[in-house]
Amino acid sequence: MQSSRSEAVQAQPGTPPQPLAAVGAFALPARPRILIVKVSSLGDVVHNMPLVHDLRARWPDAEIDWVVEEGYVDLVRLLPEVRRVIPFALRRWRKRFWQGETWAEVAALRAAIRAHDYDAVLETQGLLKTAIVARSATRADGAPVIGLGNATQGSGYEPAARLFYTAPVKVPRQTHSVRRSRLLGAALTGVTPPEPPRFFGPAASTLHVDDPLWAGLPARYAVCFHATAGAKKRWPVANWHALGQRLHAEGLTVLLPWGSEAEKRDAEALAAGIPGAQVLPRFSVMQGFGLINRAEVVIGVDTGLVHIAAALCRPTVEIYTATWRWKTEGYWSDRIANVGDDGIVPGVDEVHAAARRVRGVSL
Question: Which residues lie closer than 8 Å to 296 by C-beta, 6 or more apart?
Answer without folding.
Answer: 220, 221, 222, 252, 315, 359
